[in-house]
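Request: Give me one sample?
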Amino acid sequence: MTIDEDLAPQPVAATLPGLVPGTGDDGLPRPDAPLAVVTGVTGYVGGRLVPELLAAGYRVRALARNPDRLRSRPWFDQVDVVRADASDPEQIEPALRDAHVAYYLIHALGTGSSFADRDRRTATTFARAARAADVGRIVYLGGLTPEDEELSPHLASRAEVGQILLDSGVPTTVLRAAVILGSGSASFEMMRYLTERLPAMTVPRWVDNRIQPIAVRDVLRYLVGAAAMPPDVNRAFDIGGPDVLTYRDMMQRYAHVAGLPRRVIVGVGVLTPRLSSLWVSLVTPVPGGLARPLVESLVHEVVCTEHDIAAHVPDPPGGLVGFERAVLLALHRVQEAAVTTRWSSASVAGAPSDPLPSDPDWAGGSLYVDERRVQVDASPAALWRVIEAVGGERGWYSWALAWRVRGLVDRVVGGPGLRRGRRDPGRLLVDDTVDFWRVEALEPGRLLRLRAEMRLPGLAWLELRVEPEQGAAPLTDADWTRAPVVFSQRALFHPRGLAGQVYWWSVAPFHGVVFGGMQRNIARAAERADRAMIRRTPTSPVPPKPQADD
C-alpha cells in the first residue's frame, strides 16, 4: 500500500503558516507562547490534539480527572498536567486561568439516558468558569445538524452545548462535524467492521441519507487554526470533507479501498435505531451504548450548508482530504499498528476506576485472590513480550470458548465485551483498553495490571508479573536475557454485597481451567519465544499465537 506524501505523518501546523505561534529552535513551544488548555485529553480527539498544539508552538495545559492516566503519553513531560473535573467549578476555574484558548472536548455520549443532562450541567459550569478566568477563546467540536428537523437526542445535546458556550460571554468557535474518518474513531470502526464482516447485509433505509464525512487530520487542523480567530468571531462553522456520500456509498467505497468485493446492501424499513444499534453492537466492536447515538445521528442528512471557516482557516494547498484517501490513511495506521488514540480511550460509563488497594491488610472489605506462580525456562524479555501482547486478536491463552461467552454476556448486559480489542497488537500504554480490561499499571519488563471494565458485582483486577527465580537477586535491565524466570499471575476481586460474594464463589471452581490454563500457555509461549529469540536478532521476535490448553 502506498500513501501519498501529503498524507504521511506531519504536524497540521505545517499547513497553517502565519496562524500558529511556531516553535523555538529546539522544536518546543517558547516560554512566552500562548497557553492552550485542553479538556478531554484521554479521549479520541483530545489525545491527538495535544501533540498538534505543541508542534504549532502553543504551551499546553492538559486537564484530567486522573492525571496518572496520561503518564505513558509521549507528550506527558512537555505539558502542564492538572487534575481538574470540568463539572467542578472550584477545580475548573483555576485550571483555566491565563488560557489564550480553551478546548472543550467533553461529552457524555454512551453514558446512559441522562447524558444530555450531564452534558448541559458540565457545559454550563465550564462556560461560567471560562468567563470568570478571562479565557481568550473557547473552541468546541460539536455535531453537524440539519435545519428544521427534530434532532436525535445525541445531536440535540451537541447543539445545546454549543449554544451554551456561544452564550458564555467568551468568544467561542463551534466546529460542527458529521462522521469523522480516522484510525480508531468510533464512526470509522463501525463502518469498517460492518463492511469487512458482512459481504451481504440488510440495513435500515437511512443508509441512503447523505453525509459529508471529514478526515480526522482536517478536524485537527481546524481545531488548531481556530485558536487564532479574532476576538469578534463568536459563531458556529460547518466543517466537512470534499465528498458528500450516502452511508451505502461509504461502505462500498471502503470495500473498494480495502480490496474487498462489492457488498450486497439491501435497505428495509423495519430496522429502528434501537434494533440497528443492537445489530451494530453484535457485528462491530462498538458497544450498544455508543452505537445507538451514532446510529440515531445517521437518521438525519448531515451536509455542510456553508464553508465560512475558510475565511479564518484556509484550505490546505492540496485541498481537504477526500473519503478514499482518508480510508487509505486510516487502514495504513491500523496495519502499521500506529493508532495513537481510539474511541475506547475514553472510560466506559459506569466502569470502575478505583485502583488496586496497595495495603495488604486492606480495610475496604473482602479482597479475594487467586494467585499462581510458575518457573519459566525463558528470559524476562521473552516472557514480557508474551505478556504485553495478551488479549485482542491473540486471545487469552486459555479456554477460548469461556472467554467468548463471557464477552458476549457482558455485551448483552451493556458492557464493552471482548470486541474492543487493543490499540496496538504488541505494545501497551497505561490507560489502554485490552478487550474488557483497561491497563491500570505498567512497568515494562516487570508488571502489567489490568482493571476489569466488564459488568461485575464488584471490582476486579488481573495482574501479570515477571519475577526472578526463588533466591535470585532482583531483576535489573541487565538481566533482560537471563533465564529461568518466574511468571506470577494474580486475579483479585472485591465483591459488592451479596451478589458479589455469590459471583466469586460461583466462578471460583473454573479458575483452575481459566487462570491455570492461561498461566501454563503463557509460560509455554514464552519458552517458544525464547528459543526463537536465540535464532533471531533481539529486535525481531514476535510472541507465538496460543495453542490449546492440554
Notes: Confidence is low (pLDDT under 50) at residues 1-7, 358-364, 538-542, 544-550. The radius of gyration is 24 Å.
